[in-house]
Amino acid sequence: MKVYISVDIEGVAGITHWDEADKKHSDYPEFREQMTREAVAAVEGAEAAGATEILVKDAHSSGRNLITSKLPGGIRLVRAWAGHPLCMVQELDESFDAVLMVGYHSAAGSEANSLAHTLSLDAAEIRLNGIRASEFLIHALASSMLGVPTVFVSGDRGLMEEIEKINPAIIRCGVKEGRGQSTISMTPEAACRAIREGTARALRGNLKQCLLAVPEHAVLEITYNDPNLAYRHSWYPGAKHVGHRTIRFETAHYFDVLRMLNYVT
Fold this sequence. Notes:
Layout: E1 2-7, H1 28-48, E2 53-58, E3 76-78, E4 98-104, E5 123-128, E6 131-132, H2 135-145, E7 150-156, H3 157-166, E8 171-179, E9 182-185, H4 188-203, E10 218-224, H5 227-233, E11 240-243, E12 246-251, H6 254-264
Parallel strand pairs: 1-2, 1-4, 2-3, 4-7, 7-8
Antiparallel strand pairs: 5-6, 5-10, 8-9, 10-12, 11-12
């Protein structure tokens, strides 16, 4: 079994403030370490379920966060960014059996996580066919486009509620929840244990039922915090400025959505 693990930081246990996600800040090392612990827990769960090949993507900010010396020896690791539209699932292809997402978080516009955003802090909200789009939704559709199901996600409780509505077959692990600028969280040890158990259970289940229906017609709407960005990005081919800091893009091919997001977020 070949497994892909995408790891972010804003949904790991305990993280609460942007300083803790910023490589330049003194608060960062503690949560870089927790991001690494949770990635290792997912690897261990995957191996317990029979995974024979595992590719891990460091998918936060610079893509250079996971402490490489603490990762298991049997995996391969993708660091930094090639600029490919698959973005947080870069190097994923049809040969994989499943995707796991660790440390993911609620979408831009959500109040469920003080660190909620989608792809960058430029977007106040991104909607796909009228649904607020999280990084989970964008990349789970990308994996489904390739025929690879996303079977497990850990992160904040708000994201877990979103996933339950989209496809309840996906195993979910809510390690924390937001209250304004505060969080209520599992301890690091408890979160790692839950992730290890959850990934193993997910990979032993019916993987294909976790596939999402990829839209045959996609309407992407991006509302920016800065009106100047809305004007600038409205010049992307096929995009239209529809007012209120928002641009709209329509396509019959989901890959076009991924390609556009690569340029305008």
